[in-house]
Structure formats: structure tokens, C-alpha cells
Amino acid sequence: MQTLEYLGHGLSVAVQWHNLLFAFIGVLIGTAVGVLPGIGPMSGVALLIPVTASMTAGLGPEQAAISSIILLAGVYYGAMYGGSTTSILLNTPGESSSVVTTLDGYQMARQGRAGAALAIAAIGSFAAGLVSLIGLIFLAGPLSELAIKFGPAEYFSLMVLGLAAVSGLAGKSMTKALIMTVFGLLLASIGIDNVSGVARFTYDNPYLYSGLEFLTIAVGLFALGEVFKTILEKEQTDGTLAKITRVMPTKQDLKDSAAPIARGSLLGFFIGVLPGAGATMASFFSYIMEKKLSKNRDKFGQGAIEGVAAPESANNAAAGGAMIPLLTLGIPGSGTTAILMGALIMYNVQPGPLLFQDHPQVAWGLIASMFIGNIMLLILNMPLVKVFAKIIETPPKYLIPLIVAISVFGVYAVQYTTFDLLLLIGCGVAGYFLAKNDYPLAPLVLGLVLGPMIENNMRRALTISNGDFMIFLHKPISAVFIAAAVLWLVVPMLLRLRGKKVLVNEEG
């Protein structure tokens, strides 16, 4: 009953007119971000952080945090909706979690059933959004109560597990992912040490005394990095855009899709809760599961509606599931949730077990707004799917100046220093070259966000144990987290050495 009471309070926050507007803008931009090939949810969320900071300038600190996170979360799950549009109409996935949708979605479009495929993707995404929200509502309270009992040793080990989970499955090379994690932790150590007062890696530059600004790094790496890639590699989308005729699915389509949507939603939610797994894995696993369960496996790859319903449900459910470790434990499980966490910290709201006690308006307001956002997405996607399809044809000559302008003006409006603008350009160039050479960016961002918290908790744990590092193994929960972190790194490595294929999280 207490949970429903909190949810009621959250709903009263989410239905305030300005929060409804922020949710609408978030899901609208999110759908557009998902539709545009190349711009993933990470770039979209990073790009909009400075914009939300400017939009909420007149609001109180907590109100500004609520409105901003409602908009940014809307971009995140809106992008999951939009990603299917290009997969189905153009055979080009808008983001990595929609790759598997191309297999059957594009075949359906070629058979003149693009409208049915898009409608089932929207209905499946809506159902999955509801399933993940119900899971979030009922798991958030017990998990945060459990996490309150954690000491600094348990927290340190849990964060190490978070880093290991993302590094173990991000990108094609684990070595490169680990290099990026360490690089992120090193960047997080720049600035004046809070305990000793010693300046670290500042080289007497006053701009570095407070450390590197997360916002500048995230916008540079993801948004400007993508701009440099588009300019230098002159990417062009090949293929013909399929025409949409009838949008509403038939009764048989709905009947065939019901069970895959239910299975995909549940599987996606539980995969999303696991740190490092992400929406890409959820969509792949749900597709494989449906194919194995099907009595007629040959139709997969030939335009089976189950091949669209299951992965699209799974990737949306995973996006909702990924919010659980972020909100209850303060551990982001993917690159996008790491950026969302950085945005919350910018507003002095610390995600984690105390979030539900210290900032219940933010936590429950966000959860309730996700329910409203999902309804908005269903209403937007069904009748306006033809309009969103037109966004695919937006030429880069209009898109690139827009992204550059939002990045530069957005960062300057928040930071007010030319140093950050130079850092922004530097990060953009670094982001392009790192991504080009398969160095995943998500572990870097995660290291940057978690670095100060890892350091603080390690210090506190070592103070309690008089400098004895064995405290991390003597505490049972901490030892379990450390063992899980080691397994998360060792198992994929052993599988690769034995020549087995390891599915990586492309979002990383």
C-alpha cells in the first residue's frame, strides 16, 4: 500500500503541466533520435543535458532535477521506440538494439506490410514499457531498503562489479574496454583532492581545480564525435525507403504477436536489470528464443511478425529494467544510464538507496512520468509513423550544424568558460578516433561518473579496517560482488579463447 501511495505522489508530480510538456518533448525528440541512423540514445541524451539545464533555469533545484530527468529519460526510451522505424523501412537500424529487427521487419516491408510491422513494434514497445514499469515499482523499494544496509566496503565492491560488467561485454575487445575504464577513472582523479587538499594532475591550471566537467566530456565524446564521423566518413544511407500503406495490424497479426511480446518483455526486463547486458543483448536473446520456440522456424528471416514483436518488446523492457540498478543502487548498467546518472549528479541528486528517502519526488515522479511517456509514445507512433519516416530523409547538411550549435551553445550556457569549449572540441576529436578504432566510450563515461564514489568508499572502508585491504573479502556481500566481478571478466575471456562467440553490448 505504501508503494501505491508513493506512486500516487509521483503521479501528482508527473501530471504538472510543465512536466507533461517535458515528457512530451523528451519522447518526441527521443523518437526522432531513434529514427535517425547514427545518433543513438547516448548521443541524444548527452546532447540534451545542457539544453535541459537552460530550460529549467527558473525552477527550484529539486524541481529542475525532476523536469530534466523526465525529459532525458523520455529521450532514452523514445529512442528505443524510434529505432525500429529505419530497421523496418530502410533495412538500416537507427540504434544497435534494433539490428535484429531488420531481419524480419524489412522483409515485411518488402511484402507491403511495413505498417503492420511498425504498429506491432509500437504495441510491443508499449506493453514492454508497462511490464518494466511494474517491475520497477515493485523492485525499487525492497532493493533500496537492502542497499541502505551496505557499508563502504560493499559499495566499493558493487561499483567495481558495475565497471567490470560494462567492461566485460562492451565493444569487440575486452582489453580496449578495460583501457577505457582505467582512462575514465584517471580522468575522474583530476582536481583538488577533497580529503588531503592536494591538487592532482592540474598543472597549476585553475580551470582544472574542480575537475573535468562531466557534461563537457559526454557531449564532446558522443555528440561532436558523431558529427566528426559524419563529416569525415561521409556516411550515406543506401537502400530504398519502403512505403507505408495500412498502419493497423490484422487480428491474426495481433494473435501471432501476443505471446512473443509477453515473453520478450519479461526476458528483456530481467536482462536490462543486469549491469552491462543492455538492450542489444535483450533483443538478440528474445529473437533467438522465439525462433527456438516456433513450430515454423523457416519463416524467421522471411517476414515473420514474431521476429519484430519479440526483439522490439525486449529492447524497450531492457531500457526500463536498466533504470533499477541506477535508481536503487546508484550503479548505471549501460552507457546511457551512466549519462543519466551524471545528469542527476549535476543537480545534486545522488542516485542510490537514499534517493527514495531524500528525493522521493524525483524518484517516484520519474517512474510515474515513464508511464505517461509510454502512453504518449503509443499515441504518437501509431498515427504519426508516416511523419517520423520522413525524418529519415533529413540531409546531414541540416543536421550537423544543428548538433554543433546545440553542443557549443549548450555547454557554454552551463559552464561559461572558453576552456570548456576547447575541451569540448578535444573530446569530440578523441571520441571520433576512439570509436573509429573500436575503443568503447561507455566504460570511459562510467569510470568518470563512478570514479569519485569508488575513491570515497575505498577510503572510508580502509579507514574502518586501519588500512587492511582484506576488508573487501572479509565482508560476505562484498566478497560476493568481487567474485561476480572477476567472473564477469574471466568467463567471456575464456569463451573467446575457446573460440566461442560472445555477444557484446554494442551500446558500449
What report would you give on this structure?
- The chain has 22 helices and two strands.
- It is an all-alpha fold.
- The protein has one domain.
- 56% of the residues are buried.
Secondary structural class? mainly alpha
Q: How many individual domains? A: 1
Going across the major beta sheet, what is the strand order? 1-2
- How many strands, which pairing sense, and closed or not: the largest β-sheet? 2 strands, antiparallel
Distance between the termini: 38 Å
Radius of gyration from the CA trace?
22 Å
- Strand composition percent: under 5%
Helical content band? over 70%
Shape: globular
What are the key terms here?
single chain, 508 residues, mainly alpha, two-stranded antiparallel ribbon, 22 helices, 73% helix, globular
Task: Please outline what is shown here.
The protein is mostly helical.
Describe how the helices and strands are arranged.
Elements lengths: L1 H13 L2 H19 L5 H15 L5 H30 L10 H10 L3 H35 L3 H18 L4 H15 L2 E2 L6 E2 L13 H20 L17 H23 L4 H16 L12 H16 L1 H7 L5 H12 L8 H4 L1 H22 L3 H7 L4 H20 L2 H19 L5 H23 L6 H4 L1 H22 L11
Antiparallel strand pairs: 1-2
Helix pairs in contact: 1-16, 2-4, 2-16, 3-4, 3-9, 3-14, 3-18, 4-5, 4-6, 4-12, 4-14, 4-16, 5-6, 5-12, 6-10, 6-12, 6-13, 6-16, 7-8, 7-20, 7-22, 8-20, 9-18, 9-19, 10-11, 10-12, 11-12, 14-20, 18-19
